[in-house]
Specification:
The chain has helices at about 55-75, 95-105, 110-120, 125-145, 155-165, 180-195, 225-235, 240-255, 255-260, 295-300, 330-340, 350-365, 370-375, 380-400; strands spanning about 10-15, 25-30, 40-45, 270, 275, 290. With about 400 residues, the protein is mainly alpha-helical. A hairpin with a 6-residue loop joins strand 2 (about 25-30) and strand 3 (about 40-45).
């Protein structure tokens, strides 16, 4: 068990064993929050070898009394070079409590926690969980490398951290892709900027000029083939109809998985054949309506969805509409079981159903502006990514393969 470092050592006299031929001095030391170094002070004034013994002891006693009060005042915590005499109106406080209160602000784990609390409410819950996970990885890494305080971290240290994220798992790294590491860098840059604004970090932001690392992967969802869609439907619908209902909402209505799990029965307008995605669950924070197909409506009716109370979650915790929504990863995990059982490539994700619907809409003549509205994109440039992906796929299939 490691020893707790003392925050200060009170003044003592070093009289060189009573040797009057040597200079004597009063010495003491202290630590400053956020700085791992021990600050040492030695006072020789009035205790040189030419000064008589009794006078040395008298001056030493005065210095010991004064600097003991100096340490107890806690004034050195804010300004370690300020050694001016105490005024009568100076407030004496219990130094350990004051030291700890200030020291806590410099700790990496507390700075990242404060940053996450500040972000809460301004970003989606799923994003907040992701950022929390990233900050924990960084805090754990910093603690493992002896960087308890943010002031101890340099740009060299940050490069080592990003190298750790990119390194292969067999080398003790996390084997993250370049895009994931970029997200880490953006969040940590914001953390250090916040620390600099509060005066907790005085150097240049150490997240700048970091070498780009990480494996390059294609993060775009891969669309399903017609055969894969048919096989999955035949496997899922009879066994887990609510899972297939979620898939239809992704495919036909472009509802995101995170939005689907928080839909309520009352959000479905049976007569107008549409669903309201409220701003409280929508990724773009805007309330919008999406259409549903006759087939999807028929599936809902066959499941008796409209017999449930409007305030119940459509995808409840018990597999049917309920008071608690299904778990964050439950739909994805259940779907993956079927995908694996049917030997469908891992590149086909649950989210790929939404992507596949967009690609097929373009193939069936939907123009890009209508697709933008259907997908609830704020900008058509986002929708164009689907068109570019489709163009690459078609080009590969119709041009290169015919030349083989």
């Amino acid at each position: 068990m490691s020893r707790t470092k003392s925050i200060q050592n009170y003044p003592t006299l070093n009289n060189k064993g009573g040797d009057l031929s040597k200079d004597w001095y009063v010495e003491f030391s202290f630590r400053v929050p956020g700085d791992p170094q021990l600050h040492r002070r030695r006072i020789c004034t009035g205790m040189r070898r030419t000064v008589p013994e009794q006078q040395r002891y008298k001056i030493a006693a005065e210095f010991i009394s004064y600097y003991t009060d100096y340490l107890k005042s806690g004034r050195y915590i804010n300004d370690p070079d300020d050694m001016t005499p105490l005024r009568r109106d100076d407030t004496h406080r219990e130094e350990l409590r004051r030291y700890i209160a200030i020291e806590e602000k410099y700790k990496v784990v507390n700075i990242t926690t404060s940053y996450l609390e500040e972000m809460r409410g301004s970003i989606r819950q799923a994003s907040h969980r992701k950022y929390t996970s990233e900050m924990k990885v960084f805090s754990d890494w910093a603690a493992a490398h002896g960087h308890e305080y943010i002031s101890m971290i340099s740009q060299v240290d940050m490069q080592q951290f990003f190298d750790y994220l990119a390194a292969d798992e067999r080398q003790g790294g996390r084997n993250l892709c370049r895009q994931s590491i970029k997200q880490y860098r953006l969040q940590l840059h914001a953390v250090f900027e916040r620390a600099r604004a509060e005066g907790l970090y005085t150097e240049e932001n150490p997240c700048v000029s970091i070498r780009n690392k990480g494996k390059i992967v294609d993060l775009a969802p891969t669309p399903y083939t017609a055969d894969e869609r048919k096989r999955l439907k035949e496997a899922i619908l009879p066994r887990q109809p609510y899972l297939w209902l979620a898939i239809e909402l992704l495919y036909y209505s472009a509802i995101r998985p995170g939005e689907a799990r928080l839909l309520k029965v009352g959000d479905i307008d049976r007569e107008r054949r549409c669903i309201t995605v409220h701003n409280t669950i929508a990724k773009n924070k805007r309330s919008q309506q999406v259409g549903i197909t006759n087939d999807t409506l028929t599936l809902m009716e066959s499941l008796g969805v409209f017999a449930y109370h409007p305030d119940l979650y459509l995808f409840g915790h018990g597999g049917v509409p309920g008071t608690k929504p299904i778990g964050v990863s439950t739909l994805r995990e259940r779907f993956q079981d079927y995908r694996r059982a049917l030997h469908i490539p891992e590149s086909r994700k649950l989210y790929s159903w939404k992507h596949t619907g967009a690609i097929n809409a373009l193939d069936n003549g939907m123009d890009i502006v209508k697709l933008k509205d259907h997908m609830r994109h704020a900008n058509v440039s986002t929708t164009m990514q689907y068109a570019k992906k489709r163009a690459r796929d078609v080009h590969a299939a119709e041009s290169y393969i015919d030349m083989l």
